[in-house]
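REQUEST ID: PR-0412
SUBMITTED BY: lab tech R.K.
PRIORITY: routine
TASK: structure prediction, single protein chain
INPUT:
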Amino acid sequence: MTIDTGNTAFMVLCSSLVMLMTPGLAFFYGGLVGRKNVLAIMMQSFVSMGWTTVLWFAFGYSLCFSGDVGGVVGNLDQAFLRGVTLNTPSPMNNTIPLFVFIAYQMMFAIITPALITGAFANRVTFKAYMLFLTGWLLFVYFPFVHMVWGGGILQKWGVLDFAGGIVVHNIAGMAALASVLFVGKRKVLDRGPHSVPLVALGTGLLWFGWYGFNAGSEFRVDSVTAVAFINTDVAASFAAIAWMMMDWMNAKKPKLVGLLTGAVAGLATVTPAAGYVSPTSAVIIGIISGLVCYFAVALKNKLHLDDALDVWGVHGVGGLLGIVLLGVFASLEFNPKGADGLLAGNSTFFFKQLVAVVVSSVWAFGFTYGMLWLINLFTPVHVADDVEETGLDEALLGETAYLEPV
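STATUS: complete
OUTPUT:
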């Protein structure tokens, strides 16, 4: 193997950027909840950095990218990174060491289940969360990575997902919806967001890290990398402004939290399309995502669903929307290895994207609901009423974020 030092250095940088997104998510969610539940939700993100890495090293990577079992999951040939040497090339770019590819994909595995935690904020026991984290990775995340990126059935069929519209956002969002329906509402009214500056800091870290998330998914430095980079920024920016304008019209004031949430919605929505569409299409995707995700959150509120931090409305709807809009706007002109979409006359590709959205949504929702039901047989998923009243930080962790009274 001949190592391309430029591409390798770029992918090490992108891996670091994606790693930074999980602490960013912790700050984003931590600022949105009340003062007595800050550490509990941040813990759920940070513990994923540790435990998901353990699972990824042991068998996660192998189940995603080694071999193929029925088109659904890989095998255990590379469990504990068996057989991986200094000279083993990456499957996506043979001028990059496999170790770098393993690390990059591991960062995706870390943040994806952490996204779900915003949906059941302030009301899930830590033991149940650890079981959920393990089971969800094993039965939802790892199979979809293999099916879409690891040589599985959806990839072979021609489904495209540049950086995780299905693999990250749609399945996490649908899992969030299932979690909300199973776990139920919070008994204690939350007074969040307790710190909008923390939300802004988290958004900044997420936005910054997302360049590695999307541009890095080209696995080399070329023109497509550049397109993915600019598409990421313009979609986030237009979505942020669209969401802010909706807030301004309805609440008569522009809201910073709305602007920040809109940016995240745009980032999530453009993720599957970033390296397959033109910047003009990314602008349209951003505007649509800002508006549609705004109304999805409004619908959630109208239905009184206690998705605490709008994971379904932002990531679930955003991921779904991004996969569908990729089916509309994809262009071989901007990525010869991609496909033409509906606007270029390719209705077959559009249909495949629709099928992929339905399959991933049903799978993620069904498995998540079933896993929570099973976990609840062994250990309570919802915290006791007194724990919710006291706050999860003190009751579950024995720590508090702030010295003054809550």
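NOTES: The radius of gyration is 20 Å.
REVIEWED BY: pending
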